[in-house]
Amino acid sequence: MTNRLFALCLSAVLALAAPGCADARAASEGEASKDEAPKQAVATVPDLSLPDLKTGEPVSLTQNGGRVVLLDFWATWCDPCQKSLPVYETWQNELGGEGFAVVAVSVDKADAPVAEHAARLAPSIQVLLDPEGVAPKAMKLPGLPVAYLVGRDGVVRSRHIGFHAADAAALKAEIEALLAEPAP
After folding, report:
1. Can you tell me the mean pLDDT for 51-74?
2. What does pLDDT average to over the chain?
């Protein structure tokens, strides 16, 4: 009995130490399955508009202007997010002229230091604010960070759960392959 209890506790601890930060809202509402494949194209981007951090103007998640978009969901309290945003910043600067854009959706509460984190980690990336968690609920995010790679045609090509520096080269290769496709 003691070994069984230990095994259950260990399983719970390992689940919390998974590649991303737990998104309490999605997890508590049971909206996401833990068995989903991390790179499977499983959703479309919802037709939502969120305010831009810098301008306050609403920006549609579905209008990509013919660009390849990495739609990243993050939060200031998420450790893997702190590692992913600088990598995405590098790609934004390197590939932006080729039709690539990173759009980072902060799911932080309204009083969180989002502007400070964005300015420090990814100053050239467009940051949208979603303190109510509307987009994560619509997309049934399993945790944070989660990045959707959207082709020039607006179709979600892959989903990446969590962030590991070792996987960054493969994600960049996916982005470059999409950039090489002809514009619709």
Report:
1. 96
2. 82
